[in-house]
Specification:
The chain is of the alpha+beta class and 240 residues long. The chain is 22% helix and 33% strand. It starts with a helix and ends with a strand. Keywords: Hydrolase, Metal-binding, Zinc. One of its GO terms (molecular function) is metal ion binding.
Length: 240
């Protein structure tokens, strides 16, 4: 199955996963088909699937009743659905009506971790630290910082625990205040995520509506290695 350049030029995809991250299913249509590494793929007009990127794992999803993995196709720029290893897609044609859906629990888990990551970045910056990297994967979530100048508090275990306690207090206060989380498209079409007035950062991930939707945000004592401040964390979505 080989896609044509004309088909890809005409394919217009809506990133529905960014427009409404709480939407769990949608009726849409196939806009392109092709192959990736010898495996067939299909792209739909209203894309509910978040592809892995920005430190966040991909959604688990289904195209009709077939489980798929969303990936970003480099050539077309589309988010395409491929079958998991050992699986296969049904025969699909451009224009065909399909129903897409996602694993809502997985989506909420990933969104909670990504939202909590922005919050931890914000409170780290309040300490004067600069963010170096982030990871929002379950079981691996962490934000790594660097202090512009040596922070004497971090030289011993007691000081590191005090610094972590200060982070925990600010995180808990922001969650208690239920700060609003909002994404806006700003200069040059960049999508910027705001935690009310506390923080803003360019981001293409999925997030909760507000910090009050975060639950069980846990920060173990931070670690310091070769000048990098590593803040690990876990978080879940609060059930209402």
């Amino acid at each position: 199955m080989v896609h044509s350049s004309k088909m890809l030029r005409e394919a217009v995809q809506v990133a529905t996963y960014l427009d409404d991250m709480y939407l769990d299913q949608a009726d849409t249509r196939v806009i392109a088909v092709g192959e990736r590494g010898g495996a067939p793929w299909a792209a739909v007009e209203h894309c509910l699937f978040y592809p892995q990127g920005g430190g966040q794992p991909a959604d688990r999803g289904w195209l009709d009743d077939v489980e798929v993995i969303p990936v970003r196709d480099r050539e077309s720029g589309l988010v395409v659905a491929v079958a998991p290893e050992g699986g296969k897609l049904p025969s699909l044609a451009v224009g065909q009506a399909v129903r897409v859906r996602i694993d809502v629990q997985a989506r909420m888990t990933h969104a909670a971790l990504h939202t909590a990551g922005h919050l931890i970045e914000a409170v780290g910056r309040l300490q004067g630290w600069e963010m170096l990297s982030n990871n929002h994967f379950p079981g691996q979530a962490r934000i790594e910082f660097q202090a512009p100048q040596e922070d004497a508090r971090l030289a011993d275990p007691e000081g590191r625990e005090e610094a972590t306690a200060a982070l925990r207090d600010v995180v808990a206060a922001a969650i208690a205040d239920d700060l609003h989380v909002l994404a806006r498209y700003e200069g040059e079409g960049r999508r910027v995520v705001h935690l009310d007035a506390l923080h803003r950062a360019p981001c293409g991930g999925t997030h909760l509506r507000s910090l009050g939707d975060l639950a069980e945000v846990v920060l173990p004592t931070l670690k310091v290695k070769k000048g990098r401040i590593k803040v690990s964390y876990s978080a879940t979505h609060r059930s209402h």
